[in-house]
Amino acid sequence: MQQTINNTLTAAWTAAWDEGDVNAFDAIVTADYQRESAGKKKASGLKELQQEILDIRAAFPDLTTRIDKVIADGDDVAIFWTSTGTFTNTLHGVPPTGRVVETRGSNALTLRDGLIAHERVTWDAGELLADLGVPSLQSAFEDEAPDIVVDNLSGDLPLDIMKGFNRQFITGVTVVTTVDDEGKPRGLAANSYASISLDPPLVLVCVQKTSSTYSALFQSSHLGINILSNEQLGTVRTFASKAPDKFADLEWHAGPNGVPLIDGSSASLEAEIKERFQAKTHTIFVGRVRHAEVADVDPMVYKAGHFFDGARLEEL
């Protein structure tokens, strides 16, 4: 009897994950089936599982799964498995990399009358992206226990308060650059740049996923960060626009790894992308600096939606 159950579970698993027949799970789960993610600590039902399978198979069309072991003890069953596939299409807003990934996981099942009533999984789509080198910071944004209180409103901060906070922070202005898969230069204006460390030389920049440069940047191995000078107001306006070719009238030169570095900048660097962290609407790119240039020209300063001459700062 137990062997029959094991064979049924394995057959349904293979049909769903390898062939995309997600309806195969209909016959092996109870009406109140619940699936718990060990990482996210959240429960979902059959429809959410079926949709996740379809999403993952769309991103990994050649996905194959091997059942490594099934261990049963009465109504408790553990499945250990290995999946392999090529990241071919977008998954959860992450552009494809063309990389082949092999990922492993285990599922703890609780049966009722031979059907799965509860399933606890150690793996989900977020873990798959982590295996591809794209870890998520999702856990930092969960609202399971909101404890922020502003004007007696629990939950997230009101948008106008967050905007007001950000307007008080003075930054420089950068243009982040890269090249797409056709070798065409791409770039966007950003002020979310920070130096992480000098030894090793690490930097980070946050990029919104809706940017037209995002896909090219995500798939690239290197990026450029150009700190704009107080003579480049026209340049920053170009890169903040939706112009189809932002490099058309721009003077630039290629760094050692081919990344566009903008002439006239106060400073420019070229960094090898080491990490890509998913943070809701943005991706945090962490890079190791491989090349840097510094010019004798003052940088532009940005505060509250306005640009200022960095040469006229008064020391306190």
UniProtKB/TrEMBL annotation:
Gene3D superfamilies: 3.10.450.50, Electron Transport, Fmn-binding Protein, Chain A. It holds the Pfam family Flavin_Reduct. It comes from the Bacteria. Keywords: Oxidoreductase. Residues 166-309 form the Flavin reductase like domain. SUPFAM superfamilies: FMN-binding split barrel, NTF2-like. GO terms for biological process: polyketide metabolic process. InterPro entries: Cyclase_SnoaL-like, Flavin_Rdtase-like_dom, NADH-dep_flavin_reductase, NTF2-like_dom_sf, Split_barrel_FMN-bd. GO terms for molecular function: FMN binding; riboflavin reductase (NADPH) activity. PANTHER family: FLAVIN REDUCTASE, FMN REDUCTASE (NADH) RUTF. This is Flavin reductase. It comes from Arthrobacter nitrophenolicus.
